[in-house]
Amino acid sequence: MGINKKEVDYSLYLVTDSTMLPEGTTVCSQVEEGLKNGVTIVQLREKDCDTKSFVLEARKVQRLCIQYNVPLIINDRIDVALAIQADGVHVGQSDMPIPLVRELVGPDMIVGWSVGNIEEVEQLARWGPNMIDNIGIGMVFPTKTKKNPKKQPFGPQGVISILDALEENNADWIKTVAIGGLHPDNIERVLYQCRSSNNRRALDGIAVVSDIMAAEDAGFAATRLRSLLDRTIYNFSNLDLSTPQISSELIKVIIDQVSKQHPLVQHVTNKVHQNFGANVTLAIGGSPIMSENPDEVLDLASVSNSALLLNTGTVAALNDLKKIVHVYNEVRRPIVFDPVGYSASQTRLDLNNALLSYGQYTCIKGNIGEILALAGMGVSKMRGVDSGDDVIDEAILLKATRRVAFKYKTIAVCTGITDIIVNGTMSGETQLGRNESNTNPELLSYITCTSGDIPIMGRITASGCSLGSTIATLLGSLSIGENAYRAVVAAVILYKTAGKIAANNCTGTGSFNVALLDELYQLVQSNNPASWDVTLNIS
Ligand SMILES: Cc1nc(C(=O)O)sc1CCOP(=O)(O)O
Ligand SMILES: C=C1C=NC(C(F)(F)F)=NC1=N
Ligand SMILES: [Mg+2]
Q1: Which residue's CA is the closest to the ligand 2 atom numbered 8?
Q2: Which pTM does this prediction carry?
Q3: Which residues line the pocket of ligand 1, CB cutoff 6 A?
Q4: I need a surface site. Which of 128, 186, 223, 428 has the fewest CB within 10 A?
Q5: What class, spelled out in words, does domain 248-538 have in CATH?
Q6: Per-residue pLDDT tens for 296-320?
Q7: Is 385 left (phi over 0), alpha (psi -120 to 50) or beta?
Q8: How many helices (H) and strands (E) does the chain have?
């Protein structure tokens, strides 16, 4: 009990399990390897164990924790925690009610609670700061460790909604760890993505069971987790993610680079878009490849100037799509995500949300309906929207685009008469804990680009989808360390310019289709962005 509960480091929380131990290891040997290599708090969790052996085990683990000055938490068994004077307890929703727990253990012990929904956050906030000290937010991803789980995995977005509820309920004292299926291939992304929408609260740590308890080399496993936790930048892409100056000279350089690098732009997209998307990519100097086969994605993504356009109008299987996204994140090459018809149907919503849970996207582009839905401001929930011609106020669209940019830590593009671009990547910065001073995402800088209404643009197939091809091509032309935001802006301006000229020169949708390709081709060949006739508003 030498631990001051206000100073506990929750960053690497090891929860034990004696049912998955590799041959020749014990709970204590795995715990000790963890303590030696960066575990900062231990929870003894034994589901089927008689009391006497639990107490003996707890005493052994306690000796180790004292040796490393790390708190020992006992799961469920308040009696055992009191018997050995552990540093705290952790209880689930169906265990002893929290007020009774606090009464039994007194004010100095750490009380942890499993939290999986907003109602539980509202309850802990009502109890106030003397009741619960920390919460395990789960489950993030599927896990075999928890037998007969009563809840579904809710991904990083589910964690964010719990962090938001803590902020909305002013539960400032609560420390948080995420739990459930957390492993080196997803921990960085979870730490980077999981911040409250007001940018004031990140996770205080992550909790793992199998990644350490089932590890042949628990020391190595803990070391790897420790190094991921100590990172301050999540390099999901090897591009520079800051918000730089934009100028026609700089855009000229990017356009020139496309012609030189002929980036390999992998398209996973819907049937209607395939042909036109490939032609748009070729017209501006890229090399398109239409492939949904996960077996070849590593070869494609490993090409030096590669990029992926993931347009979920595709019918490819979710597992194949997850593998493809995972590979591009692993090789750190950009992905443009176009969540076609984001909330138009339950199946599309589920597919898009699953992909948003399992990947990190350099750019997410959508039309007004998709961006509003992604921002949780879907037209059905919209107030003050003119029902008739459903023209939505630009300020609302900017708010939605900023929300999407920050919510998914991405460069968000909302297409319409005016295209809006917002950089929500925070330059890849990741942090633990609560920080009141962080920038307010509602003030993220943006760029708008318009050349007036181009009604015919919406009258041909795949015009929106092919902006995705254009963005992916320009991102693909970037080499390590070059700026992503500028390339996205350049692509939007190029596409808007070509659309405007083509609309003025065509006699119908057929010739518009051809004219759009011709104009994209011509604008790249002549490469004179200073002459492009669009109106930019740079905040
Ligand atoms: C103990 C526990 N609680 C969860 C919750 O969601 O509350 S998930 C879980 C098991 C997590 O194990 P692993 O790290 O091996 O996935
Ligand atoms: C079910 C659980 C949920 N969360 C946690 C922790 F992460 F430690 F808070 N421990 C548990 N046993
Ligand atoms: Mg679209």
Answers
A1: 136
A2: 0.95
A3: 15, 114, 136, 138-139, 143, 145-146, 179-182, 208-211
A4: 128
A5: alpha beta
A6: 999 999 998 999 999 988 778 999 9
A7: beta
A8: 19, 17
